[in-house]
Amino acid sequence: MKLIPILAGLAMMVLQLITPLYAADMSRVNVIGRIDVLGGNSITVNDMKFALSPTLKVIRKNNKPGTTDDLMRGKFVKLKFIGLGQGKNLVDSIYLIDRIPNESPMQEGPR
Questions:
Q1: What are the tens digits of pLDDT across the range 80-110?
Q2: Which domains does the chain have, with CATH numbers?
Q3: Which of 14, 44, 46, 84 gives 20 to 30 Å between its CA and that of 3?
């Protein structure tokens, strides 16, 4: 079970490395992990730093609106992005979750 978070972290590191190379639009990408640092206009999850949108939305576990006060180091979150073009992306929504879900392609079902 400890292998899943490690693999997820490695996958996100690869994504972080190739995103600037291809100026990818991350609006279709979700980042899931633990909050390392939250401060100012950015959040660090799984050792990756992301800029926050000025219109950031925080959604608590009960799907009710939250605030940045609900976000603390060590909490599990899912980040959703908006693409600004030219490889610029901002975190637009942060969802508080209980744990990192076991998301393998075989469990996701059809899209």
A1: 988 777 667 789 999 999 877 664 333 333 3
A2: 3-100 (2.40.50)
A3: 44
Residue 18: Cβ-neighbour burial (10 angstroms; 0-12, 13-18, 19+): exposed
DSSP string of the chain?
-THHHHHHHHHHHHHHHHHHHHT--GGG-EEEEEEEEEETTEEEETTEEEEEEEEEEEE-TTS-EE-GGG--TT-EEEEEEEEEETTEEEEEEEEEESS-----HHHH---
Q: Are 60 and 51 in contact (CB under 8 A)?
A: no
User: What percent of the chain is predicted at pLDDT more than 90?
Assistant: 40
Q: What are phi and psi of 24, to 5 degrees?
A: -70, 150
At 57, list the tokens. 């939305």
CB 89 within 8 A of CB 43: no
pLDDT tens-digit series, residues 2-21: 666 666 666 666 656 555 54
